[in-house]
Structure formats: structure tokens, C-alpha cells
Design brief:
The complex is a heterodimer of chains A (90) and B (360). Chain A is of the alpha+beta class and 90 residues long. Chain A is 17% helix and 21% strand. Chain A contains 2 helices and 5 strands; from the N terminus they run E-E-H-H-E-E-E. In chain B, 2% of the residues lie in helices and 43% in strands. Chain B contains 2 helices and 30 strands. In chain B, a hairpin with a 3-residue loop joins strand 5 (46-53) and strand 6 (57-63). Classes of the chains: A alpha+beta (90), B mainly beta (360).
Chain lengths: 90, 360
């Protein structure tokens, strides 16, 4: 099962956030799984239309995903999916 | 005077409270996070914080215990497939205004957003739905555009207390729209306004009311600080008259407040024109009219008069009885106990201030 890891910045809003094993086969489904575990988290990662937020990045096995709109990048059962923020602002 | 002032700032939600003859900070919430609007629903005492996370999107929280605890509510979201324009998906980019539905609709709340969607809740804010009639207005895609923000935004929602299904909204840039049926249908109310920046001075939409307010003592009288002057209507927004000073200072600016007890008295916070957006001649002043805009008085006592860059954003000036408060882009907070005749500093060290509201 792929493992989802999170930037520490999200723990500010989701106190119980920890590395999570996912059962799904697509990133969109992974987000739905996460939403069940951590209600509200999906809207922190993608916008109203399901598009990855501008300053949020998802890495699969260390590689930035290509498809920020429909989240179609593939992964396998051993993959590590890392959800992190861009560094910006002040 | 209502004894509490809520601030929405670039680095948090701050509540000041007046007791024992002094203002003190009662609450700081969401430290470090931009709060576009700090809003108190005076019917219930519920406080609302509209957050603008740079990374994580727009969020909405409410507190029923004066900020001691907060509950996150699902922020207004555009339904799947909605587009700002062809090929540009619509998502809530900013919450720019919030208003309650009035005493006859206790569960009703309104929210205005960038990119131009108005949202309505009929269940005390638990769920907000896009007002489709306005989103589908035939002028929206071609006749509305960004002003102050990249996309059109609704910054003003004025509910008429005499008939709470009658609402005026202000959109930058589109203008003033009115509904008399709680948002089912809309009438454009831009007659008499002018917009120097438009190629067609008689355009139906595209005007830039920076803020729209009604006189509490006579809601038929509406005021707006516009990009191109100060406008006033005495007939419920059917006709607008420019009452600004042609040579200023009461001309360009963002904020306006109207006295609770006098529909002829209002305050504006003048700024240098859109070329610089700084304090005029490095000095801060508030201008007040006591005669419906025929004349304006400059109020400067207690305000910085040199080396000053502050301007006042559209939601950052408020009145309550004889009291006024305003917050600035450089984090200064000023209070007047006497309708602007004199000013006191409440703080010089706040973050950029986006909104102020008096409440109980």
C-alpha cells in the first residue's frame, strides 16, 4: 500500500495528521480516503474544482507530479506520496 | 459606542475591548494567518474569521465564545464546472464581504467573493451555496473585470433593514447591483456613476465602487467611495451623484462610514490617486461631511502629518455613535471619541489591517 506523508505545516490544522497508508489506485481517490480520515483536508490540498492548489506540491517517489489538474500521475503499491507546500511569502 | 472592535489583519484576527476607560486586546486568534474579514453577526454574537491562506486556500471559521474556541466551517465553494471565463475554472480565491440576513431571517448569511460569486447560507452558515442568478447574469463574463484584485470581487453586501429581501451589492469592477427578491433577480444600479478608466463612459457595467454602505438612519440613502470619486444616492441607488471634491482631498480612497444617527454625515479616508496609493503629501487625514457631501472638513488632530505612507483599506473604517476607528496598511490603529475631531493611537505595531468592525 502506498504511504502518504505530509508537510509539518498541515499539522497546524490537523493535529492528528500522521503517515497514512492508502488503499486507492489514483491520487484523486487517495484524497477522498484522506478526507474520510481527516475531514476537511481535501480542501487544503485542492481547490473547488479539484485542481491542486497553486502553492501545494505532490511528489510521488521523490518526483513532482505532472498533472496538477486531474491528478492522473501513476504510482504503485510501494510508492511514497508526499504532500508539501511551496516555500513562499513573508 | 459599541465596546468591541474586531480587526481582520494580515497576521491574524484581533479583538479590542473598551473597559475601565481604555482599549485592551481581548483576543488574538489565527496568529500569522491573513484574515480578510473579521465579522461579528450581531444577532447571535457569533464571530467569523475569513482566512486567506496563501497555500491552503480560503477558509472560514466561527466562534460562539468571543474567540476562545473556533470551529471550521466549509468555506463557500464554486460548484463543479463553474468557470470565471471560458477555460478559467472558478474557485473561491478570497472572501471579501460578509453580511447577516437581518432580524427576519435569523439563519441567513451572505458572503461575497473573488472571483465575483455571491454565496447564501440559510442554515446559520453551515452550508453556503452560490447565488446562480448573479453568477449567470448576462453581463458577468464580458462586463465584469478585476479591480484591486485579479478577478472581479464582491466587497459590499448591504441588506435593507426595512425589507431584508432587498439587497444592494458592490462589485469591483462591475458596479452596484440590487435584488428585491433575495437574489432571484438583479437590477444594475450604475446610473450617474462615471469611470474614467472605461473606454465607453456610458458602459452598463465595469464601474469600481470601492465600498458601498447605507445610512443606518435612512437606508434609502446609499454612499460609496468609488475609484473615480465619492457618490451618494438618495433614492435607493437608482441615481448616483458625485459629491467628492474635484481637487480633493475627499476624492480618491477606499473606505467610507456613515453616522448611525445622521444620513447626511459621513467620513472618508482620502489617499493619493491610483498612481501611488499613499497618504496625500505624507500626511494622514479623515474627511467628514455633515451636509450630505456639499462640503467636507479635514480632520487631522492626532494623526501623523509627515513622513506617512498609510492608506485605509475599504473595510477598515467604521463608526459607532460618536466613535470612529480606522486601521491602516502599515498597521496603525486610530480611534476618535468625537466624530473625528481628534484622534488617539490605539497601536502603531499591528500587521496590515484589512477590516474593522464595532460590535458589542
Amino acid at each position: 500500500m502506498p504511504t502518504v506523508k505530509f508537510t509539518y505545516a498541515l499539522r497546524r490544522f490537523f493535529k492528528t495528521l500522521k503517515d497514512t497508508s492508502a488503499k486507492s489506485e489514483t491520487l484523486q481517490e487517495v484524497l477522498e480516503e484522506l478526507e474520510k480520515e481527516y475531514p476537511g483536508i481535501r480542501s487544503y490540498i485542492v481547490d473547488d474544482q479539484g485542481i491542486l492548489r497553486k502553492h501545494v506540491n505532490i511528489f510521488i517517489d521523490g518526483k513532482l507530479i505532472n498533472d496538477r489538474t486531474t491528478l492522473s500521475d501513476p504510482f504503485n503499491k510501494d510508492s511514497e506520496i508526499y504532500i508539501m507546500q511551496a516555500l513562499s511569502g513573508g | 459606542m459599541k465596546p468591541t472592535v474586531l480587526l481582520g489583519t494580515r497576521k491574524g484576527f484581533i479583538a479590542y475591548h473598551f473597559s475601565n476607560n481604555r482599549w485592551q486586546v481581548e483576543n488574538l486568534s489565527f496568529e500569522g494567518q491573513p484574515v480578510s474579514i473579521a465579522y461579528a453577526d450581531e444577532r447571535s454574537g457569533t464571530w467569523w474569521a475569513c482566512l486567506d491562506h496563501g497555500h491552503w486556500g480560503v477558509k472560514l471559521h466561527r466562534s460562539k465564545d468571543r474567540g476562545l474556541t473556533w470551529e471550521e466551517i466549509k468555506a463557500p465553494a464554486y460548484p463543479e464546472g463553474k468557470e470565471i471565463k471560458e477555460g478559467i475554472p472558478a474557485t473561491t480565491r478570497y472572501i471579501w464581504s460578509m453580511a447577516n440576513g437581518g432580524k427576519n431571517f435569523l439563519s441567513r448569511l451572505w458572503i461575497g467573493t473573488d472571483p465575483g460569486g455571491l454565496f447564501l447560507s440559510e442554515d446559520e452558515g453551515n452550508n453556503f451555496h452560490l447565488v446562480e442568478s448573479l453568477w449567470n447574469h448576462p453581463t458577468r463574463k464580458e462586463g465584469w473585470f478585476g479591480g484591486g484584485r485579479d478577478q472581479p470581487g464582491i466587497h459590499s453586501i448591504v441588506v435593507d433593514p426595512r425589507d431584508e429581501n432587498r439587497i444592494h451589492i458592490g462589485i469591483s469592477c462591475a458596479g452596484v447591483f440590487e435584488t428585491i427578491d433575495a437574489g432571484k433577480t438583479w437590477i444594475i444600479r450604475n446610473k450617474g456613476m462615471h469611470a474614467d478608466f472605461l473606454p465607453d463612459p456610458n458602459a452598463e457595467t465595469g464601474y469600481d465602487p470601492h465600498i458601498l454602505v447605507a445610512a443606518p438612519s435612512d437606508p434609502e440613502i446609499l454612499w460609496q467611495q468609488n475609484h473615480c470619486g465619492i457618490f451618494r444616492s438618495t433614492d435607493g441607488a437608482k441615481n448616483w451623484v458625485d459629491i467628492g471634491q474635484p481637487e480633493g482631498p475627499a476624492k480618491f480612497g477606499f473606505a467610507i462610514a456613515v453616522a448611525d444617527d445622521d444620513a447626511e454625515q459621513a467620513w472618508v479616508a482620502p489617499a493619493n490617486s491610483d498612481m501611488t496609493r499613499t497618504a496625500i503629501k505624507g500626511a494622514l487625514c479623515i474627511c467628514r461631511t455633515d451636509d450630505g457631501g456639499k462640503t467636507w472638513k479635514e480632520l487631522r488632530k492626532g494623526l501623523p502629518q509627515e513622513n506617512c505612507f498609510d492608506i485605509v483599506y475599504r473595510h477598515a473604517l467604521a463608526s459607532s455613535g460618536n466613535a470612529l476607528v480606522f486601521g491602516t496598511t502599515t498597521g496603525n490603529l486610530f480611534f476618535s471619541p468625537d466624530r473625528g475631531e481628534s484622534w488617539q493611537v490605539l497601536s502603531n505595531y499591528l500587521p496590515m489591517i484589512y477590516s474593522v468592525q464595532f460590535t458589542n
